[in-house]
Every structure is written in C-alpha cells, then in structure tokens.
C-alpha cells in the first residue's frame, strides 16, 4: 500500500560524514544561525533511542535547502524506530506470556515493520485480500494468519481458501452460510460483542454477536458441520474501560461451555486488540486475572490464546516530521501551515480521534529536537507562544491543532514533529488536493555486524600455536596468506561486505600482495602485533617496540594510521592499553565483558589468586575494578571465533579442528537470533582467520550465515572503525578517562 523509500543506509550515510562531533548545520534560507548538533545533544545526553531519532531526523533535514530543493524533497516524512518495536514485543511477551501476538496489519502496513514482526515470530491479523497477500509475500506462514474480518466478500473468502488461510471470525448467520459454501473447512471463531462504548474507537456498533446470537451461531455450526474452533472479541481500539475486559472473557467462557454441550471442543480464544502503550501494564494485569479466572491453565492446558495487536505495537515506533510552509498572523492568532494534515498522515485526528501534539524540531533553523522531546505542551510556560496549526489542503476542516503552545517560535522552512504517529496514520492517508500519501520513511536500525579478520598466518605459528619449528605448520601459515586471504576477499565481496583485517607486521611483510588486495578493495586494516606475540609475555620495552614498528608499517602501507587493534591471543595489559591510546588508537577488539554491546575499555582490574600455602583469608578477596579509558571495546567472543573449534593445532590435545561447521554455524546463529530477539540494538562482531575461514567448508558456513543474518531487518555490515565511530558519537567518554591522542606518536 505504501511505497516508501527504504533507507537502510542511514548509518553508513551518517558514518560517512567527515566529522562526528560537528555535523553540518541545517541548510536554511540565509540569516539562520549555524548550529552544531553535538552542542544541543550534549545539553541532556539523551537516551540512545532518543539520540538515534534526533540524529536520523537531522540527517534528513540538514540536506534540504528550501531555496533550491526539488518540489517533493520537502514532503513530510516518517522515522520508524524498529528497536522500539522489538522492545514492545518483548514487553508484551513478558506481561502476557499466555497470549500470542498477531499483529493487526490494518494499523500500519509498513513493509519493514511487518518484516521485523515476522522475524520475531508474530502471527498476523488481516482484514482483506490485500493484507493477506502482503504478509504472504513476506513469507508468513498461512497457518499464522487470522482473517479477522467478520464480514468478507465471497471472492476474498475463496482467495483465503486458495492460499491456505484457514482461520477467520464470524458474527452472523449469513456469513456462516457463505463460509459453508466457499471455505467449509475453515476454522471459525465466533466474534462476540463487547461493551466498548468508552473506547476511543468503538467497534461493537458494527461487529460482534450478542450472547444469544452467538449461541445460535454455535447451533448452526453444528447443523452445518462447520469447524468451530473458538471465540473472538475486541474491547474497542483505545480501550478506556478495563472493567469490560473481565466481562468479555467471562462471556467467551460462556460460549465455550455452550459449544462444549453441543459437542465442540473449542481450542482458541482471540482477545482482539485495544491495547495502548500508556495503559498497557494496567490492562495486561486485568487480562491476566480474567484469563486465569475464566480460562485457568490447568483446566485448559491446550488452549491457544491470541491477540490482534495494532496500536500497541505501531504507535510509538513512528515519528512524523512536517515542514512549515506558510504563516499567517492577524491580531487574534498566529496560524502556521504545514505540509501534512488531516487528509494525509494526520487523518488519525478525524478517523481515530487522536489528539496530536506538535513539537518543534527546528526553530529559526536551529535544531531543538532534544530540548523539548520530553516536555509536553501542558508543561510549557504560559508565556509560550500559541499557534493554530493547519494542514496543506484548501479545506477549512484541515486543522491539526486549533490552539497549541510551542516551545519555541517557528518560521517558514522550520520543521515540526509528532511523536507516536504510527497507528492509523499512514494507513488511511489520502491524496486529497494532490498532496502525497506516499511519504518517505527512514528507519532506525541497529544491528551492526562486522567481520574482524586476523591474518595470523605464519606469525600465528611463531607467536602462539607452538608450530614455530615445524615446516609443515609454517606451510599452513603460507596457505592462509596466499590462498585463504583471496578466498575470503572473494566471499566478502560477494555480499558487498567491507571487513576489518587485523594484520600482524610479519604477515604484512610476508604477504604484501595479498594485503594490498585487501587495502585496495576498501577494507579497513588494524593492528595485531608483529609475530602474534603474547603481550603479557613481553617486557614493556618489547611491547613498545612492537607497537611502534607495526603502527608505522600499517600507516605507511595504508597512507593513514590505523584506529583499531586486536591483541594477539586477546591478551591485553594495562601498559599496553595506555600505549595504544598514546598512539591514537580508538578501539580494541580483544575483551569479553559483554558479547553484543560496545563499552569503554576498563583497565587495571586486580584480583587475588588462590595461594593454598597461605591462610584462606589472605586470598578470599573480591576483584577490584580499575579505571575506564577512552578506548572503545568492540567485544571479542571465543564462541564467535572460527579458530578455537576449527583449527587443528598439534599441541592441542583435545582434537580441535574437526568440529563440523554446521554445528558452529548453529552456535553463531543462535547468538545472532538471541541478540535479535532480546536487544533492540546490538553489535555482532565475527572473529575469523584466513587460516581457518579460507577453507571450503568454513567459507560455505560463512555464506549460509551471512544469508541468514541478511534476512533480518536493520542489519548493516560495517567496519569496526565505523562501529567505533558510531559508539563515540553517541556516548560520552567517562569523566577524566584517558583519551586517544589526537597527534599520534609515529
Ligand atoms: C478486528 C480487529 N482486530 C484488531 C484491531 C486492532 O486494534 P488495536 O489497534 O486497538 O490493537 C482492530 C482495529 O480496528 C480490529 O478491528
């Protein structure tokens, strides 16, 4: 239904900006001040979600110059936070563990929203053939679709049958007879009426059988030998009267009992929608109690309970930004005209009875998003200016807010935004007066995947694996350089992934041609010691000499200094970290305090080893934490590293090297899937080596894994330096922490 420009590259777009601390100021008609974005952000240090939203809005509007842009460039646009969507699904599952969410597509049929929900195993509630078609095209299982419209056109019923959509709701005898003729095996849920008179959008005026009618429907199902499987209800969209919930669940139970007396064994209860984020905890509690009272789990062990959630999931994920196109003031009021209105995406004011709250995004060209993000209109001082806000059409009905306070003055060309604009907004937008209803949507997606490839090669055998005296082992190192590197480059190129190659000085000097291929293909190159020597075995002087030589080698080779480092064997030392910072190194990828979140590297932790020759009290001491530094840690994880399970090392007694890559793939995929389900943002750093991943069985594993990961919404493959820059742009370094030197010692 909506043709929206997909903006997957929002991250890379931002990341490609030259400066992080000072994003370009807004391009506005002359006279507006230049505003450094960081300045505004640092006033509050907002939550990450808010920060991302602000950055995404800014990334769009800062490139628009109303003096020169194309006519369509100024259109209103949405930002959709898929992380918020995942948070809400998790919240639902925590609060309503007995109830499976089926998303009501009618609420907002944004393709990426639907795709994310599909990946999180939600079912779908479809109201029409087009909605069924849309979710089937995304790959939804027809068994996880409920055609939840009690009144359906015959061709649509046939369409459902032909496409194996075998579950629907009915609330009248005529519908039952249509089903008997055109989809006789369909699973039927009788939709009963609720008292939804206090809901924002009552539905029972149109749908729902009374209890008496419902009993007749059960009887007719028995007469026609139809597949009656359950009961459905909806307490009204925007349910404001929680008492109605218990009644609806109790009434459902009555129909269950009645059906049972007629020989049916009902197995499904559909509790509909009606949930809003602001009242969710309260209504979830009422539902839990009602379900436990009328459908106790012990009594109904096989009951499937589903819900048809719309507003709860879609509303708060979307923010709408509109542009101030005109102003008109007289003695009585100041009117502003914006380029979206009640015939467009703000139709929710008319159709859904929503009260929308305009907020200032830019004031006279100044980006003020964060300053007013958390303040409601009601909290604004009486002295705040009052406006009436109007949509773009020529109709007097097109009024968004007749009398609203704004936190700052706005001028022509400024932007206003509306939070919570995902439910029943774009879904019913029209083109009235020729204005577009197909607005761009930018997505906040936060799954940052990266490849860290350590070219251990011969250096690995010299420094760590114990093969330094074996010509055979060293030949395997030569394989890694000459064969493994080109194969891995080919594999990454196939998926258009730029990795980060951590190259020991020894490997660079031994395989200059292969390393040049890496550099010339646009991959990042970082430090990894010289001979893969263990930092903790070296003197300080040796550590410094190794760092100095390898830093210079890489700087000369790449024409710019490296910004990242992987410690050989992932062993770091406090002095080593300080040295890295002195050399301007910004991030490390060696530690495992977390497995999917970046953090500020802490150094100087101390702990007491057990000394059995001493009294216990001398070694019973907790770990002492050291100090955080300004080095970003992109965590390493032995479980997402190809080498421990799949590299044969003669000195390793437990036969490592023959793990089946399909098993390793399972472990890596489980990590990814768990992070995807549990975190609305995460990094997924893969650590591998051409020594191992250059082998055919492992290359094929990478291909399968990348294809699995790429099926997920929000996935972006970045270099580790891009991940580091992103983290730095959004997180303040700990107070007093040692920061990377800006004029690195070379
Ligand atoms: C049959 C049905 N199911 C689900 C919904 C979604 O309701 P809500 O957005 O309140 O969750 C609606 C809304 O109109 C509906 O009519």
UniProtKB/TrEMBL annotation:
Keywords: Decarboxylase, Lyase, Pyridoxal phosphate
Residue numbers of N6-(pyridoxal phosphate)lysine PTMs: 106
Domain NodB homology: 471-718
Matching PROSITE patterns: NODB, ODR_DC_2_2
Native source organism of the sequence: Ogataea philodendri
Alphabetical list of CDD domains matching this protein: CE4_HpPgdA_like, PLPDE_III_ODC
Name of the featured protein: NodB homology domain-containing protein
Cofactor list: pyridoxal 5'-phosphate
Homology family: Belongs to the Orn/Lys/Arg decarboxylase class-II family.
Molecular function terms, GO-annotated: hydrolase activity, acting on carbon-nitrogen (but not peptide) bonds; ornithine decarboxylase activity
Example of a GO biological process term: carbohydrate metabolic process
GO CC field: cytoplasm
Active site: residue positions: 394 (proton donor)
InterPro entries named among the record's database cross-references: Ala_racemase/Decarboxylase_C, De-COase2_C, De-COase2_CS, De-COase2_N, Glyco_hydro/deAcase_b/a-brl, NODB_dom, Orn/DAP/Arg_de-COase, Orn_de-COase
């Amino acid at each position: 239904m909506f043709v929206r420009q997909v903006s997957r590259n929002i991250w890379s777009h931002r990341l490609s900006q030259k400066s992080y601390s000072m994003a370009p100021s807004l391009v506005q008609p002359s006279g507006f001040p230049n505003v450094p974005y960081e300045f505004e952000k640092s006033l509050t240090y907002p939550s990450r979600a808010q920060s991302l939203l602000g950055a995404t809005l800014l990334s769009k509007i800062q490139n628009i110059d109303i003096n020169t842009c194309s006519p369509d460039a100024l259109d209103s646009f949405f930002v959709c936070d898929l992380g918020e969507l995942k948070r809400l699904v998790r919240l639902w599952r925590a609060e309503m563990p007995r109830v499976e969410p089926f998303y009501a597509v009618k609420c907002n049929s944004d393709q990426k929203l639907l795709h994310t929900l599909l990946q999180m195993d939600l079912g779908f509630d479809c109201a029409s053939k087009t909605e069924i078609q849309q979710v089937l095209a995304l790959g939804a299982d027809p068994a996880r679709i409920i055609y939840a419209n009690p009144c359906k056109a015959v061709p649509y019923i046939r369409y459902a049958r032909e496409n194996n959509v075998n579950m629907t709701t009915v609330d009248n005898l005529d519908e039952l007879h249509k089903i008997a003729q055109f989809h006789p095996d369909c699973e039927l849920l009788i939709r009963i009426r609720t008292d939804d008179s206090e809901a924002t959008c009552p539905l029972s005026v149109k749908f729902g059988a009374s209890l008496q009618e419902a009993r007749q429907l059960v009887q007719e199902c028995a007469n026609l030998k139809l597949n009656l499987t359950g009961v459905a209800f909806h307490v009204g969209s925007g349910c404001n009267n929680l008492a109605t919930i218990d009644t609806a669940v109790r009434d459902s139970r009555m129909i269950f009992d009645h059906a049972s007396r007629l020989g049916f064994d009902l197995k499904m209860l559909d509790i509909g929608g009606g949930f809003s984020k602001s009242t969710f905890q309260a209504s979830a509690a009422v539902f839990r109690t009602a379900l436990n009272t009328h459908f106790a789990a012990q009594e109904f062990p096989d009951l499937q309970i589903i819900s048809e959630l719309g507003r709860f999931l879609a509303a708060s994920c979307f923010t709408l930004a509109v542009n101030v196109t005109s102003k008109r003031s007289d003695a009585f009021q100041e009117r502003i005209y914006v380029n979206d209105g009640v015939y467009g995406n703000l139709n929710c004011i008319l159709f859904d009875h929503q009260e929308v709250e305009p907020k200032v995004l830019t004031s006279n060209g100044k980006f003020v998003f964060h300053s007013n993000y958390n303040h409601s209109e009601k909290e604004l001082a009486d002295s705040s200016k009052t406006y009436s806000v109007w949509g773009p059409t020529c109709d007097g009905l097109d009024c968004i807010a007749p009398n609203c306070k704004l936190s700052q003055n706005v001028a022509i060309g400024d932007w206003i935004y509306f939070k919570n604009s995902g439910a029943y907004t774009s879904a019913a937008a029209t083109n009235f007066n020729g204005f577009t209803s197909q607005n761009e949507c930018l997505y906040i997606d936060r799954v940052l995947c990266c490849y860290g490839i350590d070219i251990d090669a011969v250096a690995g055998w010299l420094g760590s694996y114990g093969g330094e005296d074996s010509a055979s082992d060293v030949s395997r190192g030569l394989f890694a350089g000459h064969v493994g590197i080109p194969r891995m480059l080919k594999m990454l190129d196939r998926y258009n992934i730029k990795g980060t190659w951590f190259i020991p000085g020894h490997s660079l000097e031994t395989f200059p041609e292969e390393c040049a291929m890496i550099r010339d293909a646009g991959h990042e190159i970082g430090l990894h010691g010289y001979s893969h020597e263990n930092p903790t075995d070296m003197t300080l002087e040796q550590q410094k000499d190794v760092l100095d030589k390898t830093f210079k080698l890489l700087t000369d080779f790449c024409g710019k200094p490296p910004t990242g480092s992987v410690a050989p064997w992932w062993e770091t030392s406090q002095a080593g970290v300080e040295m890295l910072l002195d050399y301007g190194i910004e991030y490390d990828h060696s530690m495992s305090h977390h497995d999917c979140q970046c953090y500020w590297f802490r150094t100087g932790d101390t702990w007491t080893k057990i000394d059995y020759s001493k009294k216990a009290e001398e070694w019973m001491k907790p770990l002492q934490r050291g100090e955080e530094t300004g080095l970003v840690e992109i965590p390493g994880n032995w479980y997402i590293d190809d080498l421990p399970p799949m590299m044969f090392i003669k000195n390793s007694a437990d036969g490592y090297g023959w793990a089946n890559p399909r098993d390793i793939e399972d472990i890596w995929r489980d990590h990814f899937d768990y992070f995807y389900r549990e975190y609305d943002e995460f990094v997924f750093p893969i650590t591998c080596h051409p020594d191992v991943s250059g082998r055919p069985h492992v290359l094929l594993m990478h291909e399968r894994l990348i294809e699995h990961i790429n099926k997920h919404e929000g996935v972006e493959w970045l270099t580790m330096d891009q991940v580091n820059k992103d983290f730095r742009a959004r997180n303040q370094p700990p107070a007093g922490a040692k920061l990377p030197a800006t004029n690195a010692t070379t």
